[in-house]
Write a structure and sequence with these properties.
By secondary structure, this protein is an alpha/beta fold. 40% of the residues lie in helices and 16% in strands. Strands 3-2-1-4-5-6-7 form a seven-stranded parallel beta sheet, sandwiched between helices. Strands 10-9-8-11-12-13 form a six-stranded parallel beta sheet, with helices on both faces. Strand 6, helix 6 and strand 7 (164-167) form a beta-alpha-beta unit.
Length: 381
């Protein structure tokens, strides 16, 4: 029986790629096709722990190796022992350190004529020219078929992968992420008691200036402008700090101190129950200029929460389908602030959210996502 083999490009951080992987497995289960998928995971990694917590372990192949490179080598050894008709999906292989291994393994993969796909969850780009050349060489040797999470991503990765088989917007569990009050997260209690309106930004804290800069520093002037205008908003960032010493968090808190809004910004670590945070937000704000898709856009809409997002990248691509007026220039904090006030106080926002959720249900359903993956890799249901 033909199976899809999935090998993620990393196992040690929690982000949209891991969430989408979990939902893909869930979608295969819903279609009664979980026996058609094998997901290779490093044992006891963050990815493994997340999949265990979400109950998606039925199809896992565990590699018990602590070294990332050795783990990937063992994964390819296992792959090369599987039937040649089983397609391989490399899930977001963009880490520069993995490119030499990918170049070496591409020889065996090409010789066996195994169908190879690459799911591009980001732009596969690099500010370093040598890094770009290494990726170009790796993908040229491998010659995979690409699946992209947005048209924005597809337009950017054509310089690396020309054979694009489809654009699949990322799935969201609309039952888990749904309107209505949930259990109040303890971290939000004191903010709610102060009767402040929460501006939620679920996002990892990464290095400023990189290709997929989350641009969290743009939030601080917006909060300061809202304060100046006499509005009681409180920014809440939820996500892991990607620095080794927590300096990205400290830099944001120092910036908030300089702008006089240190008491209006809270930074929390990643939360596996992030769906409980959305219902208590007046709005979600995401100002990343080159976000490939923006999972939090569809999660917020699914929870019935308006989202103010960048007028560029995958965020804008999604907002164009139901709320183009909610897109803003992330470099204009005063205009962002006015848009937040407008959207959170407008009676029309409720109607827009109803239409927006219909779009999310139709285009980001779990079963649809899984069935489209099966169609693209030519595995019949």
């Amino acid at each position: 029986m033909k199976k899809l083999i999935i090998l993620p490009g990393g196992f040690q951080y929690l982000g949209g790629t891991v969430v989408s992987l979990s939902l893909l497995i869930q979608g295969f289960k819903s279609l009664n096709q979980v026996n058609r998928i094998c997901v290779i995971v490093q044992a006891n990694s963050i990815t493994h722990q997340y999949l265990k917590k979400t109950g998606q372990t039925d199809c896992l192949v565990l590699i018990d190796e602590s070294s990332p490179i050795k783990c990937m080598r063992q994964a390819f050894e296992w792959i090369n022992q599987q039937p040649r008709h089983d397609p391989l999906l490399l899930d977001n292989w963009t880490n520069r350190e993995l490119m030499p291994l990918l170049i070496l393994e591409s020889v065996r993969l090409r010789l066996t004529r195994r169908s190879v796909y690459h799911f591009c969850h980001d732009l596969c780009a690099s500010n370093n020219y040598l890094g770009f050349l290494l990726r170009k060489l790796a993908f040229t040797c491998l010659s995979p078929k690409a699946i992209c999470n947005s048209q924005f991503t597809a337009n950017h990765i054509r310089v690396l992968i020309t054979n694009i088989k489809g654009v699949l917007y990322q799935p969201v569990d609309t039952h888990k992420f749904s309107p209505g009050a949930q259990n109040i997260p303890s971290a939000l209690v004191s903010i709610i008691e102060k009767e402040r309106k929460i501006l939620l930004t679920p996002s990892r804290l990464n290095k400023p200036g990189i290709v997929n800069d989350k641009n969290l520093r743009a939030l601080i002037p917006v909060i300061a402008e809202l304060k100046r205008l006499g509005h009681n908003y409180h920014g809440v960032i939820v996500g892991s700090d990607q620095s080794t010493d927590g300096r990205y968090s400290r830099e944001l808190l120092n910036q908030a101190e300089q702008w006089g809004v240190a008491d209006r910004l809270t930074i929390l670590p990643s939360q596996i129950d992030i769906e409980n945070f959305y219902p208590y937000a007046s709005a979600v704000v995401t100002l990343a200029p080159r976000e490939p898709f923006g999972r939090i856009v569809v999660e917020a809409i699914s929870c019935g929460v308006p989202i103010i997002g960048s007028n560029t990248g995958g965020i804008y691509e999604i907002l164009l389908n139901f709320a183009p007026d909610w897109a803003v220039n992330p470099d204009c904090p005063n205009l962002v602030a006015y848009k937040i006030i407008e959207v959170t106080n407008s009676l029309e926002t409720h109607n827009t959210l109803l239409k927006a959720r219909e779009w999310v249900v139709e285009n980001c359903g779990i079963e649809k996502y899984a069935s489209e993956i099966l169609r693209i890799v030519s595995i019949p249901i």
